[in-house]
Prior knowledge:
The chain has helices spanning 2-28, 82-88, 109-117, 154-160, and strands spanning 30-33, 43-45, 52-54, 58-65, 73-77, 122-131, 134-140, 145-152. The strands form two sheets. A six-stranded antiparallel β-sheet has the order 1-4-5-8-7-6. Strands 2-3 form a two-stranded antiparallel sheet. The mean pLDDT is 90. It has four helices and eight strands. The protein is α+β, with helices and mostly antiparallel strands. The chain has two domains: 1-30; 34-160, no CATH class.
Amino acid sequence: MTGKILGVFIVLSALVGGAALYWLQIYGFYDAVEVSGANDDVQLTLLVTGEPEPILYENFQAIDADSSPIRYRACFTTNMSAGLLTETYEMIEHAEPRNAPKWFDCFDAKEIGAALENGEALAFLGIKEIMYGIDQHVAILPDGRGFVWHEINECGELAFDGKPLPAHCPPQPER
């Protein structure tokens, strides 16, 4: 009898633990990001100065989590033309959006990735080194829908792996 009770307890504990782990990974760590009001929620890096500049946008919504610097995802719309964007802001060649939780349904990484791959979407550098080793990438589709996510850059990959940094990398901040 004691073995059955112990077995039921172990199975129930595993089910509760698994459900809690699933909820924490999919919902628990994410928070909605408030619109700043200063219109600087969406920024692209200028070709001329190399500095980020806010762009015109509407319908901004974003999520983020303190548990990782690459969990940031945002969606917006813009009426800026592709010609103006490509002549003014720094484009990037290899942008791969990261998956967002299914409940954040405005950000579909497969759709964005396919549009980038076939040349429909344009990819821009949002903010270089938004935090050490992390860049912000922005993709804009022809219909004006835009998407933002954070990506680990080359210096970040080396630093996070504990490898020596090349001379072009900024010094690591003190912990």
